[in-house]
Amino acid sequence: MSLSKDELEEIIEELRKHKGRHTELISVYISEGYDVNYVQKQLEAEKSTAKNIKSTSTRKNVTDALDKIVRHLKGLKKTPDNGLALFAGNVSKIEGQSDLQLWDVEPPQPLKSRLYRCDKDFVIEPLEQQMEVDEIFALLVMDRKEATIGMLEGKRIEVLHKMTSGIPSKVRAGGQCLSPDTIVFEKNKGPISLEEIEEGDKIRAYGLSTKKIHYQNVKKKWGVIKNKLYEILPTNVGQILCSGDHVFFIDKNGGIVEKTADKLKVNDHLLYQDGSLSNIIKINTKKGKFDLIDLEVEGGNFIANDHVVHNSSQRFHRITEGLTKDFYKRIAEEMKKSFFENPKLKGILIGGPIPTKDEFVEGEFMVTKLRDKVIGRRDLGDSSESGLKELVEKSQDILAEQEIIHEKQMLERFFQTLGEKPEMAALKEEATKKALDYGAVDVLFLSKSLKKIVSKPLKDIAKNMGSTIEIISSETEEGQQFENLGGIGAILRFKV
């Protein structure tokens, strides 16, 4: 039976500890599908070559190790499905004494290489490569203000980048402002100046689609100081005094477009309150210190000095949208830097508020190769590091085969059994050992932090009983909780 990665890791650690006094430790790798009988014959030939070794002790150790491997191979009918790795040698730490050991390893993944080597160390690199995580998931949690990019590798969540958009939480102060004596028409008060306007008043606005006048609520009013003033002189009314970034509606080829005061030109046609056009005959600028007033109105515009002008909040909404798109582009670029060339990338999970994550994905900000890797979107309100953990939690259906989810699910089952049916569970070494001796253990749980002298005897009994063995890491909260409870437990087949 092929080993689990946890079992393989233990064997690698053990093999790494042994050192030969000379080139007398033998490593043999048989690739999947290769004829084990042919390898046996090759090693028989190596025994003849070993007779030429000058050192008597080295010659004996090499010959004995080859003999042990050959005898083991004779007992096999065929090469195991994933291939086979064999290690043999005298590992005694006392010179002159013999402690000939053999390790027979069927790895969790197929072996692709064949190897025979006699050296001072066992060759463990091909096995170490199988310990590497062969797939990762990219994680992204985001809203319009911040984003955190991370990576799920096995059970470990790693934060790669934290980003902020720079978009203010409250878009208010603008700058597209009018002179305090500008006249607007309030529903109940009639014509009044901006200076007299109060929040909650209803002032006239123009429906660009309906081509009719209606009333909109004034949500906010505030003062702004500017050092430059534009004096717009249209044909239909007296002057309009405003800041350079105040937006007007003008005619262009029979359609209405927006244009700021500093971009207006003589003979531009401003949109008048009745839907007609008002020709600009002169534009003056003044420098100094000017107290102006800005409004935030519910709709997209309002009527000032009988001309349709833009609502400040709408203009800043457009600015916010622009900053948001720039932020999305930066996120996409960081995702590309982190994952585009990573061959282990299996999928991308994205979390965030309902519109934000969808805008990002459907807006095609990421390159096609990464966009095609998006395998899940989850509704989240947290775009920080803890949001990455929540994203993984909420993606259990997608990550069902991943180690972190499997471990969590198994521990949840264990803790639930312990709480609801304590007679069908065992906790700590004494109770678990007793259940193993009775053959009652269905699933054995062992913390990875346990010393081998404690865990190995329990594992050996479990294997002989056909029990499932779960090695629990301490990289999750549940794993740490299990470790704090002693790190040994079991779900039972029957009561003990």
Query: What share of residues is helical?
Result: 25-40%
Stated plainly, the CATH topology of the largest domain is called Endonuclease - Pi-scei, Chain A, domain 1
The largest beta-sheet arranges its strands as 7-6-5-19-20
What is the makeup of the main sheet?
5 strands, mixed
Q: Uncertain segments of ≥5 residues (pLDDT<50)?
A: 169-174
Instruction: Work out the number of β strands.
Output: 24
CATH homology group of the largest domain: Hedgehog/Intein (Hint) domain
Cα end-to-end separation: 29 Å
Mean pLDDT, to the nearest integer, reads 89
Helix/sheet category: alpha+beta
In DSSP terms (H or I, runs of 4 or more residues), the helix count works out at 12
What's the architecture of the largest domain, going by CATH? Beta Complex
Which helices and strands appear, and what pairs or packs with what?
Blueprint: H1 5-17, E1 25-30, H2 36-50, H3 56-74, E2 84-90, E3 100-105, E4 115-119, H4 125-131, E5 136-142, E6 146-153, E7 156-164, E8 183-186, E9 190-193, E10 202-206, E11 213-234, E12 240-242, E13 247-252, E14 255-260, E15 269-271, E16 277-297, E17 301-304, E18 307-310, H5 312-339, E19 345-352, H6 354-362, H7 368-371, E20 374-379, H8 385-394, H9 403-420, E21 425-427, H10 429-437, E22 441-447, H11 452-465, E23 468-472, H12 477-484, E24 488-492
Parallel strand pairs: 5-19, 19-20, 22-23
Antiparallel strand pairs: 1-2, 1-4, 2-3, 5-6, 6-7, 8-9, 10-11, 11-12, 11-16, 13-14, 15-16, 17-18, 21-24, 22-24
What characteristics describe this protein?
496 residues; alpha+beta; Translation, Eukaryotic Peptide Chain Release Factor Subunit 1, Chain A; Nucleotidyltransferase, domain 5; Endonuclease - Pi-scei, Chain A, domain 1; 4 domains; five-stranded mixed beta sheet; five-stranded antiparallel beta sheet; 12 helices; elongated
